[in-house]
Amino acid sequence: MSAPTLPAALADATRDDASLRRFLHGLPGVDQVGVEARATALATRSIKKSSKLWAIDTAISMVDLTTLEGADTLGKVRALTAKARRPDPDRPDTPQVAAVCVYPDLVATAVEGLKGTDIGIASVATAFPSGRSSRQVKLADVALAVESGATEVDMVIDRGAFLEGRYDAVFEEIQAIKAACGDAHLKVILETGELVTYDNVRRASWLALLAGGDFIKTSTGKVSPAATLPVTHVMLQAVRDWFTATGELRGVKPAGGIRTTKDAIKYLVAVHEVAGEQWLTPELFRFGASSLLNDLLLQRRTQHDGHYSGPDYVAVD
């Protein structure tokens, strides 16, 4: 297996299969009780009222507004891009979202709808959500997304290969997908709900980082459990430790099951306390969400108006 371009301190880990296995199994084990206790403790923290509007606006700017259903239509994607551009039409000071995420065959429609903005065009690929297809098909999936204008690609790893310990196969596939992305950023979906243990989440996180993933992402949103705070803590630790070892900043994206402003703020607290303040930016932290934005907009109105507006005042996706 060929190694990606890495700082010298980590280059040896990707020299061959044995080196990769030795490195991943040499990572410190995750203290399950400790990580769950810390996640619970940080989740109980409250933030000052003066900081809540900042947190809401920050969370809005981190949303990957997503539709990934078999019944998706061109009209639904157009409506989604309109909402991404102006999340609350009555409040033009509302931040735009980070990206719109769709299937590869709908990327061109998203590109047209987001023309003239800095909003990212993300596409899932590699036989999402199962990842069960040939390398050739997965690369074709990525090529369709990128050629259609995707600026970000969300790939899924082969969980079967990972759980069987075929780390080299997973590593090489991520490398191949990264190369196929060209200038598009690569988010590597670990599907943590299928990885069983926190130790596996840590190994998969490092494997994705070693192979060149720009982001590590918890879930497809199609498997339960999806994103959880303890799992996100483990992944935030991984990107923090990667930065310490290499000086390179990589991102984290929890996805699936994050529906309320209260939930989003818990994740922002975790980002600040586990990784650090510099990760509190859409370039390094995203929410994979479809319904979260609506609650953020309602709570934003509440902060400005001093009373709850009700769901009828926000367009439903």
From TrEMBL:
Keyword Lyase in record:
yes
InterPro entries in alphabetical order: Aldolase_TIM, DeoC, DeoC/FbaB/LacD_aldolase
Q: Which Pfam families match?
A: DeoC
Catalysis performed (reactions): 2-deoxy-D-ribose 5-phosphate = D-glyceraldehyde 3-phosphate + acetaldehyde
Q: What is its EC class?
A: lyase
- Record PANTHER family: DEOXYRIBOSE-PHOSPHATE ALDOLASE
Q: Which family does it belong to?
A: Belongs to the DeoC/FbaB aldolase family. DeoC type 2 subfamily.
State what protein this is by name: Deoxyribose-phosphate aldolase
Q: Which organism is it from?
A: Amycolatopsis deserti
Q: Which gene encodes it?
A: deoC
